[in-house]
């Protein structure tokens, strides 16, 4: 089955593209506000998802392992873990690692589900697996629930 849907006879591919030009100021403000919010949430979501994955793999998420996998220094991880503790997403145990609260695990599961949907969508478009995985890592944080639902429906359609 073709991944592309046929356009109606009176529509060319060019007509399906968004119109060029500057949007209304209020629309622009809202667009940039949403992007800023997504950027703020992105790092938190990456941390809780990784902590969840490390716990599932080895029973705990140590700072050294988080730092290694994110490619950052351990003091950077410590500062973020302090923030996550303050936000009620993580518990830290002395001489152990970081553990997710129920709220942290829910956030990790939601982030993981978004990632999987975006990655499946990219794969359905024909993007190579390694690139789809890497690209989904960024896109997952910036896609709206409405767009995510369209991605999921598209993937479901291509699997029929």
Textual characterization of the structure:
α3 (63-70) packs across α4 (74-86). A two-stranded antiparallel sheet has the order 1-2. 68% of the residues lie in helices and 4% in strands. The protein is mainly alpha-helical.
- State the end-to-end CA separation: 8 Å
The biggest beta sheet reads: 2 strands, antiparallel
Low-confidence stretches: none
Total count of helical runs of at least 4 residues: 7
- Structural class of the helix and strand makeup? mainly alpha
Strand content is under 5%
Strand elements, count: 2
Radius of gyration: 19 Å
Shape: globular
Main β-sheet, spatial strand arrangement: 1-2
Q: Give average pLDDT, whole number.
A: 86
Instruction: Please estimate the helix content.
Output: 55-70%
Strand and helix order = HHHHEEHHH
Descriptive key words:
160 residues, mainly alpha, two-stranded antiparallel sheet, globular
Task: Please give a quick description of this structure.
By secondary structure, the protein is mainly alpha-helical. It is built from seven helices and two strands; from the N terminus they run ααααββααα.
Topology, please?
Blueprint: H1 13-16, H2 25-58, H3 63-70, H4 74-86, E1 90-92, E2 98-100, H5 102-124, H6 129-139, H7 145-159
């Amino acid at each position: 089955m073709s991944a592309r849907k046929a356009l109606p006879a009176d529509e060319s591919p060019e007509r399906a593209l968004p119109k060029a030009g500057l949007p209304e100021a209020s629309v622009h403000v809202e667009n940039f506000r949403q992007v800023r919010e997504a950027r703020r949430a992105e790092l938190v979501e990456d941390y809780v998802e990784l902590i969840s994955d490390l716990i599932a793999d080895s029973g705990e998420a140590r700072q050294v392992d988080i730092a290694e996998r994110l490619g950052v220094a351990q003091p950077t991880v410590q500062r973020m873990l302090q923030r996550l503790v303050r936000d009620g997403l993580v518990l830290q145990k002395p001489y152990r690692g970081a553990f997710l609260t129920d709220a942290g695990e829910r956030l990790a599961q939601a982030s993981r589900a978004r990632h999987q949907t975006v990655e499946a969508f990219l794969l359905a478009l024909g993007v190579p697996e390694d690139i789809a995985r890497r690209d989904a890592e960024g896109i997952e944080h910036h896609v709206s629930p409405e767009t995510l639902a369209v991605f999921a429906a598209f993937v479901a359609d291509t699997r029929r």
